[in-house]
Design brief:
It contains eight helices and 16 strands. The chain has about 375 residues and is of the alpha+beta class. The protein has a six-stranded antiparallel beta sheet.
Length: about 375
């Protein structure tokens, strides 16, 4: 599971309260042509016209078995393949050695993964929208003064009910890949919501610790090394046994800030460009272990960078401390006079600058070079 529940909070993922085909679109939140995904905001009007719903469609990654041919030694005669008599080919043009085609494979290969968040909160909507982003350098003092009080207030945060449902075996027990039940060093390993659970080439797992008092990297100390080492080795062993993946080909990392505040590690193959692997967000598990071996209170001393999105209340708290959205510029007339100046477009108001950019239904699809990075996990 991920930071969002696929159905209503605490409800069974097998019996959702909604029918996906009855979704009514209000607007497009994000159309990412690089990742071949689109995030939609709307409602299920047969249930409620007020409760917002988010629907995400994403093209599935290719599996090696999908392109098998009759000559392939590992070809499963029952498995669907692009190179079969069912492939519908439409030629667009032929020029010398180059050919361009539109192809439609058999139905089994045309499935699209869908994620539904209902009812969605404003924080969910912000997360899946194209928004302005800002890099924060959080010192230990700023963590104690701003971030920690914000976390303890539980304002503007995702509910952890779905996490406790997993740890207490109330939901998703059939999805558990591995579990160590030790209350101090144990964890649950299961698929993230972003993974279809089938295509190993696109594997994405979460390791959620049993300790409830660990929110993020900031809470880790040298005393947690047994937990982290167990999390690393047991996860590698379980993944190799179940999926046949070489442990040396796995990426294991924490997010800071995380999308939900119960310590968990992300695991996916290094050959895949999974969401949230950027240097300003991810911290490799090996590096975290090494830092704590060198200094038991490393994460109480370190300055940690992280990204905040426009609309996040924590961003407003940091803005009150020092300018983030504005830039210091030198006046041409008075070079000694430095004043903060809001960098506004001539056609935009200050209020507009502080709002997430919304993709409109009639907006021309952007080029790949213009695409904003997808929302973090």
């Amino acid at each position: 599971m991920s930071s969002e529940q696929a159905a209503t909070e605490g409800g069974s993922s097998d019996t959702p309260s909604y029918e996906l085909k009855k979704f009514q679109l209000k607007r497009i939140l994000n159309n990412n042509t690089v990742r071949k995904s689109i995030a939609l905001l709307g409602t299920f009007p047969d249930l409620s016209s007020d409760n917002p719903a988010i629907v995400v469609f994403e093209k599935n990654a290719y599996r090696e078995s999908d392109v098998a041919t009759d000559e392939s030694e590992t070809l499963d005669k029952e498995a669907p393949s692009y190179f079969s008599k069912d492939l519908n080919v439409a030629t667009q043009f032929i020029n010398n050695i180059y050919g361009s085609y539109q192809v439609v494979p058999r139905q089994e290969l045309c499935a699209v993964k869908s994620t539904v968040i209902y009812p969605a909160t404003e924080k969910h909507i912000q997360k899946y929208s194209i928004c302005q982003k800002y890099l924060i350098n959080e010192t230990p003092d700023l963590y104690e003064k701003l971030t920690l009080p914000y976390l303890l207030s539980k304002a503007d945060q995702f509910s952890l009910e779905w996490v406790y449902n997993i740890l207490e075996h109330k939901q998703e027990t059939e999805r558990i890949v591995f579990e160590d039940k030790d209350p101090e060093t144990g964890f649950v390993l299961l698929p993230d919501l972003k993974w279809d659970g089938v295509n190993v080439e696109n594997l994405y797992l979460l390791g959620i610790v049993h300790q409830h008092n660990l929110k993020s990297l900031r809470d880790l100390r040298g005393s947690h090394l047994p937990l982290l080492r167990n999390l690393r080795q047991s996860s590698k062993d379980a993944i190799q046994k179940r999926y046949g993946l070489n442990p040396s080909q796995l990426r294991m990392y924490f997010h800071y800030q995380p999308s939900f505040y119960h310590l968990h590690v992300h695991i996916n193959p290094i050959r895949n460009d999974a969401p949230g692997i950027w240097c300003e967000k991810s911290h490799m598990l090996d590096t975290v272990i090494n830092n704590l071996e060198l200094m038991h209170d490393y994460y109480q001393r370190a300055t940690l960078p992280f990204v905040l999105y426009e609309g996040n209340k924590l961003l407003d708290l940091y803005e009150e401390q020092s300018p983030i959205r504005s830039t210091i510029v030198l006046s041409q007339d008075k070079k000694d006079d430095t004043t903060p100046s809001q960098q506004l477009n001539d056609e935009d108001s200050e209020e507009d600058q502080h709002q997430c950019k919304r993709a409109k239904l009639d907006k021309t699809e952007p080029n790949e070079s213009e695409i904003v990075a997808p929302a973090c996990a």
